[in-house]
Amino acid sequence: MKGELKYEGKGKQLFASDRPDELIQVFKDDATAFDGVKHDVIAGKGELNCAISSFMFEKLHEAGVKTHYVRREGPREMRVRALDMMPVEVVVRNVAAGSICRRLGLEEGLKFKWPLTELFYKSDELHDPMINTEHCELFGWATREEIGRMRDIALKVNGVLSSMLAGVGIQLVDYKLEFGKAGGEILLGDEITPDGCRLWDIESGRKLDKDVFRSDLGGLSEVYHEVAGRLGIDI
Hints:
The chain is of the alpha+beta class. 29% of the residues lie in helices and 34% in strands. The protein folds into 2 domains: 5-81, 2-Layer Sandwich (Phosphorylase Kinase, domain 1), CATH 3.30.200; 85-219, D-amino Acid Aminotransferase, Chain A, domain 1, CATH 3.30.470.20. It has 6 helices and 13 strands. Strands 8, 9, 10, 11, 12 and 13 form a 6-stranded antiparallel β-sheet that branches. It has a 5-stranded antiparallel β-sheet with strand order 1-2-3-7-6. A two-stranded antiparallel ribbon has the order 4-5.
């Protein structure tokens, strides 16, 4: 049962639950891009993202990755552990796409020799600027040891999800992860959906993620349904 609204972002809401250490995370039907400049409401998107994210977290739990996920509680709702969120995102890149191509002049589609991890400061107002470990230490966002732990988790996630997605013909190009602390332990939080991942069809390179919405490449709901269907997720 949902209680008081604790937080609302572009794609999710967090509500109090019947337990003080758990929250109800609700996925919205909103689709946004370019820090909210582009916006639409797509019927069923929240349910798709809840189903996909729940599936991903369950697979990560099976692989020994600790997350905030407790269980799915409804079509658009999942129960999660309450975390003290850290203001640092970890982005893992397997293939050049998006901002790294603009920053470094790389050709989209360049495959990296190993997974690249990057850090970004979570701030919509500042457009999530890229940072390094020294920034995190200096400004008290995270210690060097905590950043190391977050990177280790992110790379383990990469191994699990890359292999699973490759098995259904999908390349995990890149994705962002957010982390928080509960009882002093760092846990993976937020969500894992095509909103925060770049997913390409291995054979054709066709985009199966939010870039479809960003670049007006087709129907977002259709490609999210395709991702869910390939993974065998019941909606």
